[in-house]
Records
---
Amino acid sequence: MTIKKRILIVCLLLLSVCSVIFLYHYRVEADSRTEQPVDATSFSHELFDQVLQEHVDERGRVNYTKLKANSEKFEAYLDLLAFANPEELSYNEQLTFWINAYNALVIKGVIDHYPITSVRKVKLFNGFFSRLKFQVANGMYTLDQIEHGIIREEFVDPRAHFVLVCASRSCPPLWTRAYTAETLEERLETATLNFIRNPEHVKIDRAKRHVYVSKIFKWYDDDFKEGYEGVADFLADYLPPEDAEYLEATDVKFRYLDYDWTLNDQKQ
């Protein structure tokens, strides 16, 4: 065999290996559900509420090992999500539905690939959010489609960023309860307040005139212009009075904190 033929064969083998790796990381994985629940017309977040109480601690960390081994109740809730009709619900009920759905499907994506140390280990280039599809509301959606195409576009409430949990340590903590329409406004305010007043996400260095903030405020900068003059104006609504006054009266520069994508796992 000539050297040219050997080089060609080696190149073809390398190309084949690269193709397999490429297809693995870029293929779309779909979680399809074909059996409609017996009582799909009566929708409730009660099952998800029970799952969260049983598997999430006060720090927002999830016991993925236990949940993966005992997922019957969780899967039953996902079946309800798959065939629900949120368009028939009120505004608050619809937003509640999509917030709970997003958080539940993030958990589903994790346990389907568990054990992992980060959602970024599931697929390359943020593929966890863009190439895993889930059946919800009689359609197939990625997490990006739910967050950007539905929650951000149709409901336009920047506080939603502080209740959507991407299964990572720098995300807002996962609440131990499912959200309900009746208390949604209160929970949005509380989650936003807690996030902004946590120095891991927002801290002011008066000596340098720097404000260190979560990258959430960088990625979604435009969202904080809805009813506000920008991120500083939004933060001032939730910071202690002395910090809010400083932020409004001082020419500060924003610096963005490193984002920790380590899985929000109780084992980590």
Note: Confidence is low (pLDDT under 50) at residues 16-26.
---
Amino acid sequence: MFDVFFTHVNEKVSLTIAEQEQLKTFFLPKKLRKKQYLLQEDDVCRYMAFVEKGLLRSYNVDDRGNEHMLQFAWEGWWIADTYSFLSEEPAAYNIDAIEDAELLLLSLPQFEEMTLQIPKMERYFRILFQNNIIAKERRLISSITYSAEEKYLRLSASNPELVQRIPQHLIASYLGITPETLSRIRKNLLHRQ
């Protein structure tokens, strides 16, 4: 169950076999069925989740019932409401499974203990948090700078397999456009080929 996790960690820090065995003790394996929640808005986020298998999403629902996609997480990605996780205050968004998923859950007390016992993991998470800040800044710039078509083309170029796995209405929400606009963009791109 830890294959994807250790591959991902070892891309950033080098772990010994003993450290890998020790790391396993900090995680709680969890399976989610498609459409099952990992976190609901206003609950406290008790776990960061590493995706071993499957696809999850985090999103907010506005007063009119419209979903606004914040993040997708697939094999090798982490997902959580980080603010809620670290502050133990209510979550601002929902996390659920788009596909059946196998997760490794890490609680805040386990996170703290793990980073004390295995200092390499503190470096690993610092790298992840840095990359997360950069990705959020790029997404913000993209949302205010690029046209709907440019946003779709950038997403397709950076994650071609993901665009095939995610329903189009969720991609549209992630890009901040309507499903009709996304359909029109895809149709125009097909005609140009």
Note: Strands lie at 28-32, 37-39, 47-53, 55-61, 67-74, 78-79, 94-97, 101-107.
---
Amino acid sequence: MYSRKFDIKDEEIFQLLRDISDWYGYDFTEYSKASMKRRILRLINLDNFANFNSFRNRIKLDEVYFLRFVEEITVNVTEMFRDPKFFRSLREDVLPNIAHHSFIKIWHAGCATGEEVYSMAILLHEAGLLEKSLLYATDLNAQVLETVSKGIYPLRHMKLYSENYINSGGKFDFSNYYTANYDNVKFSKFLVQRLVTSTHNLVSDGSFNEFQLILCRNVLIYFEKQLQDRAIRLFDASLEVGGYLALGSKEALKYVDVYKRYQHVGKEKIWKKLS
């Protein structure tokens, strides 16, 4: 493996990330250094680069390859109703408390390929709230957002997703929500039409709406502390009083100064904004 034949100095990685910010406007400099180094070495090995300089030059000169870099560096691992207890908490502890709104806006930040967004759409549908809801699905990676917009996923995953759905409190036949076609499924139009997709960079972009619920799960763990704090403050600025913020199982709110204005809800990583 090339990653075993040579090492990359931290200074080289940081300089590359600064260059990428200058070349393309993508700022990865506050992502976890250990995670970034591991993923860069993996990509160098995967694509058979002889050395770090040739890898750097390819990124600089080949915009298509840079998109591949973004695809590999950003984290796009997700599944529908992942952590069923979390989605059960959304059903029982959150949705009933935002149901009174005449219009519900939900932001999935760092949504990857969107399985969580469709999970939320199904929850809203079963709570009778989907028709007055809009789900904003954002990610740094524009390519994964194409999957979200199409609502097409591998058929082989549906057995696991169906089990997750039932364990989250689902009462219906999960296959009612999609149509199978050969090796893929396409989720129903009434779910797709409640989604809005857009690129959004948690490093540099600001607030763009006021939401009743914001979800950003298993994204902040890949950020350095300063960027984690910035993202939390961005969510705070984007969340109305009485709204809810949901994070991943290994992520916390209590180390950021906004924490005193939030109340923990249930047993999952969900907080309600009090003021």
Note: The chain has eleven helices and ten strands.
